[in-house]
């Protein structure tokens, strides 16, 4: 499966990550991504693109609902 580094691996929308830009102050530097959320991504696709802020917050708010409704890897 091919990944697009600009798209969230869950919702497939733009992740708006700017970590690749030199001297960036991307939002992703200041948010903790739960290890349980990362573990939902197949290992060969992990660390290929950033999870978007909306998916991180949705997972933190209601993990079970996120897994049931949003997770394309189930």
Automatic annotation (TrEMBL):
InterPro entries: Cys_rich_CWC (IPR032720)
Pfam family, one: Cys_rich_CWC
Protein name: Cysteine-rich CWC family protein
